[in-house]
Amino acid sequence: MSLVRDWRSAKKRYDAAHTRAKQQIRGLSTRLSAVEYYLKALRDNRLGDAAHMRRIDAYLDEFTPESIDRINTELLRELDSLTAVEARPQVGIERALAVLEQILEAAEELMAKGDVSPVQWGQYREVYDRSAHRLMDAGDAFEDFINKRANLEDKLALRLDHATILKKINQRSRAVHDYLKCNEISG
User: Fold this and answer.
1) Which among 85, 87, 89 has a CA at the least distance from the CA of 153?
2) Which of 5, 81, 91, 125 has its CA 20 to 30 A from that of 60?
3) Can you give the residue ranges of every domain in the chain?
4) How far apart are CA 79 and CA 28, in angstroms?
């Protein structure tokens, strides 16, 4: 599987989790509104007023004066964890991966041909370095995003996918470096 396809797959999984979280937040907002209404009625001593309580009639079996604070705390905690699955920033990782992958493929073709021309490899090194720096810059912005609430399952999965892609790049780059070293090509 290519690096770009791997990244797109990882992005798709995280973006789906973000969409699910947004949908769950909408459902949670209704329950939180009902809890707030119940708490206000409890403070105003209006729990016995059937007309007033009709607005949250669907929740009256679930809510009690003893359990409402616990329910409120649980809902707020759940809301907090769902809002942490924020939108993924567009930092240019996919574009940088596409360019870097093309460069690695070109290097692998040169290796397959047995090319030891210093001119060819000098061009490779220059283009590779620029692309690697672009990927590192995009990775820095991505790390800022991923490090906020990094213990969340969806962010952790995205981080692991990103690390796997970087490991593949490292392996392919190492193979090229070893070829250059073995053939005593400077650069």
Assistant:
1) 85
2) 81
3) 20-83, 93-182
4) 7
